[in-house]
Design a protein that fits this description.
By secondary structure, this protein is α/β, with parallel strands linked by helices. It has twelve helices and ten strands. It is 43% helix and 16% strand. 47% of the residues are buried.
Length: 276
């Protein structure tokens, strides 16, 4: 009996900042033996308020950087890039995963009343990407997309606790129309937003299903690597994670730990954005 194929090359993950670490968190849970290279473009964050041409250029540069590390697959753990620059991913000579399609398919399958909310950056909402993907799976779905630009700084400042008044007020302000519409399923379309999930859940109620776009992308990655014989079967221990950022922000370790769920004390490298 022949041995199953193995691919020890790393998984590449990128985001406009550190929010994509929530996707890495899910990859570590599902694929502990895999090596991961993460690039957070912290020197040029945010992407969500920039023009489409700039977003596409940054996405192409981020992917090119990861390919220099011989990654076997790339996950765009950025709702903005996944929404505005999907063609950048499709044109790459290796498998890619965006956060839009996996989350949209799940939302379409679990909703009971067909009313689905989408929370994202201004660029994500403007693109209509989630609405298009959801309707491809469920044509009669009613989509309510809401841009929540304040969620990112709230999370990065650590104001995302269930008792934090800043988080509670922002969630109420943004999501009241969604609550009034009776949405029973909500896509967290930015990888920062899972850190606000408890506050969002408290406001919308326990009956509302929250779909974590980053988690669904990690699930699809696991399935795709298994089906194509690209899992790392040689490593019996925990895989290495190398972190690259285009600017190391003040309090990086604290921020990264908030997203990743575990301390980040090594393998952090700063890349000059001018070299991308």
């Amino acid at each position: 009996m022949s041995e199953k194929p193995s691919d020890s090359r790393p998984i590449g993950v990128f985001d406009s900042g550190l929010g994509g670490l929530t996707t890495v968190r899910q990859l570590l849970r599902r694929l502990p033996h895999e090596h991961i290279v993460y690039f957070g473009d912290t020197g040029r964050v945010p992407y969500g308020t920039r023009g489409e041409d700039v977003i596409r250029r940054y996405a192409a540069q981020d992917c090119a950087f990861l390919m220099q590390h011989d990654v076997k697959i790339i996950i765009a753990a950025c709702g903005t890039v996944s929404s505005v620059a999907p063609n950048v991913l499709k044109e790459l000579p290796l498998p890619t995963i965006s956060v839009v399609n996996p989350a949209s398919r799940v939302a379409a399958s679990v909703t009971k009343n067909g009313i689905i909310g989408v929370l994202g950056t201004a660029a994500t909402v403007k693109s209509g990407s989630y609405a298009k993907a959801v309707k491809a799976a469920k044509p009669d779905a009613k989509i309510h997309a809401i841009a929540c630009p304040m969620f990112v700084p709230i999370v990065e400042n650590g104001w995302n606790g269930v008792k934090d008044e800043v988080a509670k007020l922002a969630v109420e302000r943004y999501l009241q129309p969604l609550k009034d519409a009776g949405a029973d399923t909500v896509i967290l379309g930015c990888t920062h937003f899972p850190l606000l999930a408890p506050v969002i859940q408290n406001f919308l109620g326990d009956d509302v299903i929250l779909v974590d776009a980053g988690e669904e992308a990690a699930r699809v990655c696991q399935v795709q690597l298994a089906e194509t014989g690209m899992l790392n079967r040689e490593n019996e221990g925990e895989g290495d994670v190398n972190f690259y950022v285009s600017d190391q922000p003040s309090g990086f370790s604290t921020l990264a730990e908030r997203f990743l769920g575990v301390p980040v004390k090594k393998n952090v490298h700063v890349v000059d954005p001018g070299t991308l």
